[in-house]
Amino acid sequence: MFEKLIQELQRINGTHQISVPIRPDKDGYVDKECPDKKCLFQFKVHEDDWKNIFKEEKVFCPMCRNEAAAKSWFTAGQIKWARQRAKEHIHGMVNNAFIEGARHFNENQPRNSFLKMSMNFTGKPGMKYIVPIAAGQAMELKIACKECSARYAVIGSAFFCPCCGHNSAEETFENAVRKVEAKIQNIELVRTSLLAVSKDAAENTCRSMIETSLNECVVAFQRFNEVSFAKKFPAVNIRMNAFQNLEAGAGYWQQNLGKSYSDWISQTELDELVIYFQRRHLLCHTEGIVDQRYIDNSRDPSYQVGQRVIVKEKDVTHCLRIIQKVIESLKAEL
After folding, report:
1. Contacts with 60 (C-beta within 8 Å, 6 or more apart), sequence order
2. Which residues pair with 133 in a beta bridge?
3. Which of 284, 279, 309 is nearest to 297 (CA)?
4. Does the pTM of the predicted model rise above 0.90?
5. What is the Cα–Cα distance from 105 to 126, expressed in whole angstroms?
6. Where are the domains of the chain?
7. DSSP state of 131
8. Up-side HSE of residue 289: CA atoms within 13 Å toward CB?
9. Beta-carbon-side half-sphere exposure of residue 91 (alpha carbons within 13 Å)
């Protein structure tokens, strides 16, 4: 009577697999999540590239470069949805088997029997299809890897291609620019929000945001120069942190490329950049207190030894614009 139910239970207990489809967002991207518990960075990859370019054995996290097989990159939300839909599907299979058993029992009752029997199952029939996992909200920052052309999308920043693991100097620099610009643009919003808590907290937090932004400008400049130089002139050895020093970095480019920073920006801009770099050095190593070395290296007449340097939003923005001008000219040369 319940042969169908027995068959279904054997299927479920055997090799029966349940596939839950994943729906891409409106731009064709599907959600992924880093499986490393320390990271759990969420991003998206284009559905076509995931099928045609990505490798089953290795995918990379765009944030931390963790490596794992392609089957490991489902999001926590997707796993939760899939488990729930799988339970519903199995429950529906069992219900359908009961319904089929009851129908078969009723259809095979003797027609002229004195005793009439019927069976009724009140469970809900199972659906013939599984509802796909809905895509998360589209991510604004879309990137195409310059090495393998894989398309992916993130919120905020990404440092590595999830398909080939490539670390792009240009992409890293652009990430840094976006981050600095966002911090500077939101200074007043942060200040206003914190004033309700504490004037001291508001002032200290905003000053820290501005000063760390200047540091991020210099680090972004250094990183782009280091990676680009090593790629262009792999046989030339450069000393550690050479491109944090404008004079030293300029020397490497001049000796090997035949051009340097003074060819791409004015002398006034170069002098200003030297001051910004030197102020950043003070903030990182002396809590911003001016020493004689700063006076000698920056030729900045506005400070005396023992004072503390002041950095404003406009200083960070101006520094960033000069750096971008250098980087764009350098990219054109390379």
Report:
1. 66, 67, 160, 161, 162, 163, 164, 165
2. 22
3. 279
4. no
5. 20
6. 1-167, 169-333
7. P
8. 4
9. 9
Quick one: which H or E segment has residue 42? Answer: strand 42-46
Which residue in the block uniquely carries the two structure tokens 């919120």?
155
User: Which pLDDT belongs to residue 237?
Assistant: 92
C-alpha 99/C-alpha 102 separation (Å) is 5
CA-closest candidate to residue 19, choices 111, 106, 132, 120: 132
C-beta separation of 9 from 1 below 8 A: no
Give the model confidence (pLDDT) of 240-254 as tens digits: 889 999 999 999 999
pLDDT of residue 270: 97
Lowest mean pLDDT segment, chosen from 10-24, 151-165, 290-304: 10-24
User: Rounded to 5 degrees, what are φ and ψ at 195?
Assistant: -60, -30
- Read off the pLDDT band of 132 (50, 70, 90): low
pLDDT, mean of residues 223-237: 92
C-alpha 49: how far from chain center: 17
* H/E run at residue 322: helix 313-333
For residue 16, the tally of other CB atoms under 10 A from its CB is: 12
